[in-house]
Automatic annotation (TrEMBL):
<dbReference type="InterPro" id="IPR017871">
    <property type="entry name" value="ABC_transporter-like_CS"/>
</dbReference>
<keyword id="KW-0812">Transmembrane</keyword>
<dbReference type="InterPro" id="IPR003593">
    <property type="entry name" value="AAA+_ATPase"/>
</dbReference>
<keyword id="KW-1133">Transmembrane helix</keyword>
<dbReference type="Pfam" id="PF00005">
    <property type="entry name" value="ABC_tran"/>
</dbReference>
<dbReference type="GO" id="GO:0140359">
    <property type="term" value="F:ABC-type transporter activity"/>
</dbReference>
<dbReference type="InterPro" id="IPR003439">
    <property type="entry name" value="ABC_transporter-like_ATP-bd"/>
</dbReference>
<dbReference type="GO" id="GO:0005886">
    <property type="term" value="C:plasma membrane"/>
</dbReference>
<dbReference type="InterPro" id="IPR050352">
    <property type="entry name" value="ABCG_transporters"/>
</dbReference>
<keyword id="KW-0813">Transport</keyword>
<feature type="domain" description="ABC transporter">
    <location>
        <begin position="66"/>
        <end position="306"/>
    </location>
</feature>
<dbReference type="GO" id="GO:0005524">
    <property type="term" value="F:ATP binding"/>
</dbReference>
<dbReference type="Pfam" id="PF19055">
    <property type="entry name" value="ABC2_membrane_7"/>
</dbReference>
<keyword id="KW-0547">Nucleotide-binding</keyword>
<feature type="compositionally biased region" description="Low complexity">
    <location>
        <begin position="10"/>
        <end position="24"/>
    </location>
</feature>
<dbReference type="InterPro" id="IPR043926">
    <property type="entry name" value="ABCG_dom"/>
</dbReference>
<dbReference type="GO" id="GO:0016887">
    <property type="term" value="F:ATP hydrolysis activity"/>
</dbReference>
Amino acid sequence: MDSTTDTGCSDSYNSYSKSHSSGTSLNYSSDINAISVDLGDHNGCHGDNVSCNGLKYLPTWPAINLEFRDLTYEVYDLHTKSRKQLLRSINGQFRAHELTAIMGPSGAGKTTLLNLLAGYGAKKTSGEINVNNSPRNMKVFRKMSRYIMQNDVLDPHFTVLEAMLLAAHLKLGNELNHKQKLDVINEILGMLGLTKAQNTITMRLSGGEKKRLCIALELVNNPPVIFLDEPTTGLDDLSSSQCISLLRGIAHRTGRTVICSIHTPSAKVFHMFDKVYILAESQCIYQGAGANIVPYMKQIGLTCPRTYNPADFSEYRSLEFYDILVKLN
Ligand SMILES: Nc1ncnc2c1ncn2[C@@H]1O[C@H](COP(=O)(O)OP(=O)(O)OP(=O)(O)O)[C@@H](O)[C@H]1O
Ligand SMILES: [Mg+2]
């Protein structure tokens, strides 16, 4: 495969490793007690419209860069009575301060990859998953990451504020007093545009508000890594772009590593992602800036018509894209 800046996954992994192998990134502490509660300026909150009065009470974590190499996942298929590879030797990296989209046709392995990275379900995997250049320690990683699944359920009878208070009591325990917890909650609800809905019971929320509440509940203890499986499914264009814009804000303003799977986003939403990671046939066919996908596909003979949405085009032609890459290798 041709090695350009944003290409198929093995090359981009190598260039990433070279630029990050000097150990400049923050060390990944395997000691959970090393988390500090920062009462000063909250990192990443300066300069934007978002005030950080509440967030300052939350635990702070180092920025997290996640890498995986040669990741393979197989299951035993009862129907065919043989092993089936759901992910085949894929490489990649997802970085702090960035919002990354995992894309690809249905069945490509997007949810499987999220599950593996978040540490859900899949046990028999091969390959490496590293957190800030050290092997992932699942006990620590669980505390520093949150996974918002596609069908996350909310208790329909709680109001937004009650649901948030419950999450704060469960996740923050006695570390903060009631007033501090309310400050944190107000901050998060403001950030996610849910302040006006705080006294509404969740069954009456709109689809977009429900998704945002699912995200808000997971932000309560300030996780540095957030995985989301299809956060825009079921939302209209406006709510989808609000949701993705908000996730982008979270990544950029607070330095979090935000990774979500998404199906054929609109052109506007596609351009909000810092990076895209495209899967086809259980393999990664592209990783890099979304803006480079069209020139990259053109290089290998797939020309996107001017009027096409690059997200639709790359997903729609991904199998051809995959076949060409296989032949080139
Ligand atoms: N335990 C299993 N046994 C057999 N096949 C499985 C198993 N789990 C997942 N699969 C298959 O693996 C493939 C990848 O599934 P996955 O849910 O990751 O796809 P996806 O890219 O998230 O698709 P979608 O966009 O439809 O959500 C699918 O073809 C699915 O049927
Ligand atoms: Mg899926």
